[in-house]
């Protein structure tokens, strides 16, 4: 059995699940937001025998101990029943649910894409940049700070038009594009004291989305230089030229070292190649998207993910 932690309508999940099921694999999708209000669990440790990890939702009952591979794809927060109105009780119910489910997922006798603890740690960009430097990747000059004085000094040193500001996480509730720091930003620089900000040297060039599945490296060039927003290719994918490319062998080796050091078997890496041919690392997203690359280039990334999960699950 292959356990998939995601939610209905997530197109990457559906594409991979379709491929697995077409090969006769049993796939059990679990949406964490179903707990505790729409799904139940029964976890038992008897005096003798193996533990039982039973969950039941609209699709029926499943013993999670049968899982041989797990895909930690995308999650939504637990949803507490509306009948629990008091905020403190709601927080308690969500916390207790999380403790029960997170613990049993870690107890399962299966191999994960990605291992959950490694996935959580690798989401931290401050860790990524340190490890990237250690494995031989070039990282742009970067400052993370909530000190207005330090932020202003960084921008003053590099100059307006040569510094971008970006967020740590791309949250649906508060999504922010990468953008150049402007004079108006400097006028309100004191606001930095309320939360750390990422300031990074702007690197002109061609974007690269490099998707790593196990030991397979799928690289695509995304040229947004002549689009309406060349600072952040995510904003102008439809305007950009996208094509599959080959990476230098030494760069591929460094990226695979990065994945191993972070403990990841899947990662969507963003880099930029300068006019001088230098490759600069920005970040790796342990749950990043790939369909926009696959559909434009034909790179068989979905099949590679399905193959990896099938191999981990065994016969």
Automatic annotation (TrEMBL):
Keyword annotations from UniProtKB, A to Z: ATP-binding, Ligase, Nucleotide-binding, Ribonucleoprotein, Ribosomal protein
One MF annotation (Gene Ontology) recorded for this entry: metal ion binding
Signal peptide: none
Superkingdom, taxonomy of origin: Bacteria
Ranges of residues in domain ATP-grasp: 129-310
Biological processes annotated in GO: SOS response
Pfam families listed in its UniProt record: ATPgraspMvdD, RimK
SUPFAM superfamilies according to UniProt: Glutathione synthetase ATP-binding domain-like
InterPro entries associated with the record: ATP-grasp, ATP-grasp_RimK-type, MvdD-like_ATPgrasp
Residue ranges that the Swiss-Prot or TrEMBL entry lists as coiled coil: none
PANTHER family xrefs: BETA-CITRYLGLUTAMATE SYNTHASE B-RELATED, RIBOSOMAL PROTEIN S6 MODIFICATION PROTEIN
The protein's name: Ribosomal protein S6--L-glutamate ligase
Species of provenance: Aquisphaera giovannonii
């Amino acid at each position: 059995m292959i356990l998939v932690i995601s939610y209905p309508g997530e197109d990457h999940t559906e594409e991979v699940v379709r491929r697995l099921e077409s090969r006769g694999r049993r796939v059990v999708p679990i949406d964490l937001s179903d707990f505790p209000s729409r799904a139940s669990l029964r976890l038992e440790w008897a005096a003798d025998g193996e533990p039982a990890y039973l969950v039941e939702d609209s699709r029926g009952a499943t013993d999670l101990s049968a899982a041989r591979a797990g895909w930690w794809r995308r999650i939504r927060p637990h949803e507490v029943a509306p009948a629990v109105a008091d905020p403190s009780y709601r927080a308690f119910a969500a916390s207790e649910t999380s403790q029960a489910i997170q613990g049993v997922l870690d107890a399962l006798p299966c191999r994960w894409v990605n291992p959950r603890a490694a996935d959580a740690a690798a989401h931290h960009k401050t860790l990524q940049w340190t490890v990237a430097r250690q494995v031989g990747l070039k990282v742009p000059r970067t400052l993370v700070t909530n000190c207005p004085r330090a932020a202003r000094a960084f921008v003053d040193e590099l100059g307006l038009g040569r510094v971008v500001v970006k967020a740590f996480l791309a949250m649906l509730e508060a999504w922010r594009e990468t953008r150049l720091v402007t004079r108006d930003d400097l006028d309100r620089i004191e606001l930095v004291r309320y939360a750390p900000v990422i300031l990074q040297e702007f690197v002109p060039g061609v974007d690269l989305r490099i998707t790593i599945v196990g030991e397979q490296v799928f690289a695509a060039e995304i040229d947004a230089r002549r689009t309406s927003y060349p600072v952040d290719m995510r904003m102008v994918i439809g305007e950009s030229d996208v094509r599959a490319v080959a990476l230098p062998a030494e760069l591929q080796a460094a990226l695979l070292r990065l994945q191993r050091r972070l403990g990841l078997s899947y990662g969507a890496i963003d880099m930029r190649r300068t006019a001088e041919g230098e490759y600069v690392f920005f970040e790796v997203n342990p749950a990043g998207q790939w369909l926009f690359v696959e559909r434009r280039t034909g790179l068989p990334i979905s099949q590679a993910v399905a193959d990896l999960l099938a191999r981990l699950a065994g016969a």
